[in-house]
Amino acid sequence: MTLETQAMAIESAAVNLETMEAMKQGSNAMKAIHKDLNTEKVDKTMEDIEEQMDLANEISEAISQPQFAGMLADEDELTAELEELEQEALDKQLLGAGKAPISLPAAATAASANGKGKQAIASGQRNDEEEDEEEAELARLRESMGLSA
After folding, report:
1. 127-144, pLDDT tens digit by residue?
2. CA R_g for the chain
3. b/e for 101-125, b at 16 or more Cβ within 10 A?
4. Could you tell me if residue 7 is inside a domain?
5. What pTM value is reported for the model?
6. Is the separation of the CB atoms in 130 and 123 below 8 Å?
7. Does some domain include residue 24?
8. Fewer Cβ in 10 A, N or C end of the chain?
9. How many Å apart are CA 148 and CA 139, to the nearest integer?
10. Where in the sequence is the domain holding 2, given as residue range(s)?
């Protein structure tokens, strides 16, 4: 049993040695690759790529713009002009309207239709017949609603 344990320890040490050799070779390969490479060079390369991408975007925007884009008025100017034209049209319509129609209140027209018109309206008094009729009508209305006076 002791011999088996010792054989396993030797085997494990051999595996560890192979692993270390492989790691050493990997480290040397990475050193060789990065020999001419450092963070400053990487940053410079990334800046160059970004500048080229910005230039490509600017060119793309310039190509996609309409030919007469500089000649078009902006939206605020167009809105202001539209409002001005609408206001002018409204002013013309109001100026051409003439005078507003004059109408009498409903009570005045009813009184004049009964022949009592101007005299009753001018004095502000109603005759007793009209008051009696209104009171009778009010009583009938209360009765139909189930209210007692």
Report:
1. 788 888 888 888 888 888
2. 52
3. eeeeeeeeeebeeeeeeeebeeeee
4. yes
5. 0.32
6. no
7. yes
8. N
9. 8
10. 1-32
